[in-house]
Amino acid sequence: MREIIKQGLAFRGKKVTSTEARKTFKDQPFKLELIKDFAREKKQLSIYKTGDVFTDLCRGGHVKNTKEINPDAFRLTSIAGAYWKGSEKNPQLQRVYGVAFKTKRELEVYLLQQEEAKKRDHRKLGKELDLFTFSDLVGPGLPLYTPRGTIIINELYRELLRISKDYGVQEVKIPHMAKIELYETSGHAEKFKDELFKVKSHYDIEFVLKPVNCPHHTQIYASRPRSYRDLPLRFIESTAQHRDEKPGEIGGLSRTRSFTVDDGHTFCRVDQIKEEAKNTCRIIERFYKALGLWGDHWVSLSVRDPKTPEKYIGIKADWDKAEKMIQEVSKELKLGGKVVKGEAAIYGPKIDFMFKDALGKEIQLATVQIDFAMPKRFGLTYTTAGGKQETPVMLHRAILGSYERFLAILLEHYAGAFPLWLAPVQVAILPISQKFTSYAEKVAKALREKNIRVEISDANETIGKQIREAELQKIPYLLVVGEKEIKSNSVAVRKRGKGDIGVEKLSKFVEEISKEINERKA
Ligand code: ZN
Fold this sequence. Notes:
By secondary structure, the chain is α+β, with helices and mostly antiparallel strands. The chain has 17 helices and 25 strands. The chain has 4 domains: 1-69, Replication Terminator Protein, Chain A, domain 2; 74-120, no CATH class; 132-414, BirA Bifunctional Protein, domain 2, CATH 3.30.930.10; 427-518, Rossmann fold. The strands form 7 sheets. Strands 8-12-13-20-17-16-14-15 form an 8-stranded mixed β-sheet. A 5-stranded mixed β-sheet has the order 22-21-23-24-25, with helices on both faces. Strand 18 (382-383) and strand 19 form a beta hairpin. Zinc ion binds next to loops. Residues 212, 214, 265, 396 line the site of zinc ion (ZN).
């Protein structure tokens, strides 16, 4: 490649007939097959030449001259077998992968990022940190959380609940299945046609595992007569959903067949939408700040495409009001939201919080969705001040989305080094030798009394090995204890990322770490 670049060869394209093309590539059976396909589809054929050294059947899209390629800024990254036309019945070919950039620096940044992403792969980190597992007996796409992984999931839930309680939410609980009629009414039976798991009863009814939770929540709303004074009603819960994903698409925690979502549905009047959306955005901001992710995002105010009004359901006047409200929410909370036309759901406008994952890929995490349709489909009503029956509006909210996908993102974002409040083990106690294990127990007890998650490491190992092990586990604080520490009732503190930060009285350390955990700092 470097030789060719140096020669400064021009790329020249030429349109050809299939007869000409067949003649040029008469010894290349695969190309002859392509030429036949193209002729059948009546596609224009073209040939490209690189100087006189290389001729190929090509649609084009080239640099004009090989000199335009920076010889220091490309890299052949890998080779792999690939079946002709993607079918395993066909012969296997060798495919060479490469990347090219404008500058050497850009290439280096890219390669480094790939390297880093490999190290941060959540499947690898999840195993090393003992957070979750899969079992052939349980089945593919069905994650199992270990005790450590469960701590993280529960901490995330507790934090969400703690913040949400400030905004008047109520917890509810629903079963994992329902009759198909529930989803026929909601419209999900059609939407998730191929992804529904069916559960047969021994008696009469066929059930499906729930692919979403909204329809169940409407039935809690519908369980009693509601008045305008009862609204808003805010139901939240974290509960499992099931979707029959294609085997080829299942991978790690990013795409699973069973996943738990932090779901919430608010039933309110049209004039309450703004305040409810605002409060949900406040919850989102507080939660993402505790994780250090606030600021790494942008907000999409997803509204209708004015050119295709027929695509949306509901009354135009309600839509107009709701779209105006979400823009006001963004302005008043300084969310800096961008209005994105055509991104609304068919049932209403949305506020979507977009983040970037460790590889720079954009993903939607938190969302607030206004829904004029579902309450109508289920015939939900409330009595107005004037004694009339009206349909409430439904707001769907998700703060972290699926816990599985969220854990994968967090693992890759932190490279496994969770913030103190989330870390499965917050403190490791490292006795210098067997002699000091009873003092280590005493330190552990003092910490556990304050609900701090502690582990005592194996005193049979050298202190150097104990430190290395604890560091590999990315434990935020390590406390080394020996003769000196016992005498002064203290601990020698090592902080993750900082190393040795000195000796402290045990009582002072307990007080400080408790404060740090309660602050929920990222
Ligand atoms: Zn919903």
